[in-house]
Amino acid sequence: MEREIIQTLDGSTTIHIKDWNESYHSKHGAIQEAQHVFIKNGLALFENKNISILEIGFGTGLNAFITYIESEKMNQQIDYTGVEAYPVSPDELAAMNYIDELKASDYIAVFDKMHESAWGEKTHIDNNFVLTKRKQFFQEIDDVEKFDLIYFDAFGYRVQPELWSTEIFQKMYLSLKKEGVLVTYAARGVVKRSMLEVGFEVEKLAGPPGKREMFRARKA
Length: 220
Hints:
Elements: E1 3-7, E2 13-17, E3 22-23, H1 30-40, E4 50-56, H2 62-73, E5 77-83, H3 90-94, H4 98-101, H5 108-116, E6 122-126, E7 129-134, E8 147-152, H6 166-175, E9 176-184, H7 189-198, E10 201-206, E11 213-218
Parallel strand pairs: 4-5, 4-8, 5-7, 8-9
Antiparallel strand pairs: 1-2, 2-3, 6-7, 9-11, 10-11
Helix pairs in contact: 1-2, 6-7
């Protein structure tokens, strides 16, 4: 499918898939979405704790990169697993402007190391952040009680409804430890019903710029 690099409304870039009219991040702001959905309403719940995170849709690495930066401020040690079936190309990564937009020139080596790390292997980004990138389909995930937090950042229900099914959320539920949390930008009723069906407690929160609502789910 044809892909292009676009600039979102907060100035940060993302990848747009023309055939689907779908982007890797919100057109209203890639960085703003990541900070609101995954950091403010996910990572911040675990301040001063050592946690394991599963990201569904590693993509451009934006969520992992921002998590690294924010985890330093929150005094956290992170074991981060990013799942991606179709890794982004080096040329596409080179076109992302996250370093400039985040004013994160001190972290250039971190961003590069995240993307240069081998798939399927644990990489110590530093003493407090371990990254494992897994090249696999979401349907193949079979972790059990391994993660404290899930960033559910799959392509939207409109283009890939199968990624928001009861089957997938059952895998997410099993992957989480007791009292684990899943956050996602989504707020469709059909998504909530799938979450509830597998046992999640679901709350609706204010969404990021350009989106009224989002979901946060907890494993009791």
